[in-house]
């Protein structure tokens, strides 16, 4: 091999190493948790690829398809609480009160968008938003392929979730049950969670960072709630909802990694 060819080969190898190592270095330097000015705690979710949906679930959970989340993001460790809502909005619309560490509920999609607008303005950023439906399921699964983040055995759900069998007909303060493998609490149960997407049936094609359709009549919600049977709390379960408020519907937020 000629010296010129050797130099060119070394240069190509060096550039390849940069392509591989720079994203890893950025990931390694990003804090694994973040707490904002009103006490909302966030967990860093890594980029990755997963199989979205369930072949054994309801019809709108099929077909199972490959989804890539191309960038890490922060996701709320807990559902947004009544105290955090009160701090930004000056009111508490929730039915189940008495402990402001319960998740806020009776908020519909546009209410949540106003909360996000105010939170971004308070912190001088444009970093907060709802998760996409794909981001939500990716984080809920936390690297698992089972019905729940802890496995397929629904009899274990009570260790991780407030649902119909143990919630006593009400919400409960966030973070009292076991977290999923990525340190997120109440991804199963307590309250359903708004996501950003308009609701649409799945396609079979592999996709990267799907955002959902540009318009629609119903939004997606995820996670199940205090009044639901176990099957509605599965990681892949999804439900469509029009614009209304109810005492089983809340949310958690994404914070974009700077």
What does this structure look like?
About 5% of the residues have low confidence. A hairpin with a 5-residue loop joins β1 and β2. The chain is an alpha+beta fold. A 5-stranded antiparallel beta sheet has the order 1-2-5-12-6. It has a 4-stranded mixed beta sheet with strand order 10-9-7-11, with helices on one face. Strands 3-4-8 form a 3-stranded mixed beta sheet, with helices on one face. The chain contains 4 helices and 12 strands; from the N terminus they run αβββββααβαββββββ. The chain starts with a helix and ends with a strand. It has 2 domains: 30 residues; 225 residues, paralog of FGE (formylglycine-generating enzyme). The chain is globular. 37% of the residues are buried.
What are the salient characteristics of this protein?
alpha+beta, SUMF_dom, 258 residues, formylglycine-generating oxidase activity, Sulfatase-modifying factor enzyme-like domain-containing protein, SUMF_sf, 18% strand, 5-stranded antiparallel sheet
Amount of helix: 10-25%
Strand order of the largest sheet: 1-2-5-12-6
- The number of distinct structural domains comes to 2
Could you please say which CATH topology of the largest domain applies here? paralog of FGE (formylglycine-generating enzyme)
CATH architecture of the largest domain: Alpha-Beta Complex
Supply the number of helical segments: 4
> How many β strands by DSSP?
12
Biggest β-sheet: count, sense, barrel?
5 strands, antiparallel
H and E string? HEEEEEHHEHEEEEEE
Using the coordinates above, name the CATH class of the largest domain. Alpha Beta
Mean pLDDT: 93
CATH superfamily of the largest domain: paralog of FGE (formylglycine-generating enzyme)
| Overall radius of gyration | 20 Å
CA-based shape: globular
Structural class: alpha+beta
- End-to-end gap: 44 Å
Low-confidence stretches: 14-27
Determine the strand fraction and express it as a percent band.
15-25%
Organism: Entotheonella factor
Keywords: Signal
InterPro entries: CTDL_fold (IPR016187), Sulfatase_Mod_Factor_Kinase (IPR051043), SUMF_dom (IPR005532), SUMF_sf (IPR042095)
Protein name: Sulfatase-modifying factor enzyme-like domain-containing protein
């Amino acid at each position: 091999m000629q010296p010129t060819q050797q130099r060119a080969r070394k240069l190509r190898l060096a550039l390849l190493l940069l392509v591989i190592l720079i994203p890893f270095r950025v990931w390694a330097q990003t804090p694994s948790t973040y707490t904002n000015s009103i006490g909302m705690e966030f967990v860093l979710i890594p980029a990755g690829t997963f199989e979205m949906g369930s072949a054994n679930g309801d019809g709108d959970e099929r077909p199972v398809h490959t989804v890539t989340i191309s960038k890490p993001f922060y996701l709320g460790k807990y559902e947004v609480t009544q105290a955090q809502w009160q701090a930004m909005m000056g009111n508490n619309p929730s039915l189940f009160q008495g402990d402001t560490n319960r998740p806020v509920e009776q908020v519909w999609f546009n209410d949540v968008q106003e909360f996000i607008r105010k939170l971004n303005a308070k912190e001088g950023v444009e970093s907060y938003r709802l998760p996409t439906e794909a981001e939500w399921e990716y984080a809920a699964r936390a690297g698992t392929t089972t019905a729940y983040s802890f496995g397929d055995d629904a009899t274990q759900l009570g260790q991780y979730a407030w649902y119909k069998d143990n919630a006593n007909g009400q919400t409960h303060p966030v973070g009292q049950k076991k977290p999923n493998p990525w340190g997120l609490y109440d991804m199963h149960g307590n309250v359903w969670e708004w996501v950003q997407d308009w609701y649409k049936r799945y396609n079979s094609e592999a996709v990267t960072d799907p955002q959902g359709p540009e318009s629609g009549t119903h939004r997606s919600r995820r996670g199940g709630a205090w009044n639901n049977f176990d099957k509605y709390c599965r990681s892949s379960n999804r439900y469509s909802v029009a614009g209304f408020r109810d005492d089983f519907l809340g949310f958690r937020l994404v914070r974009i990694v700077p």
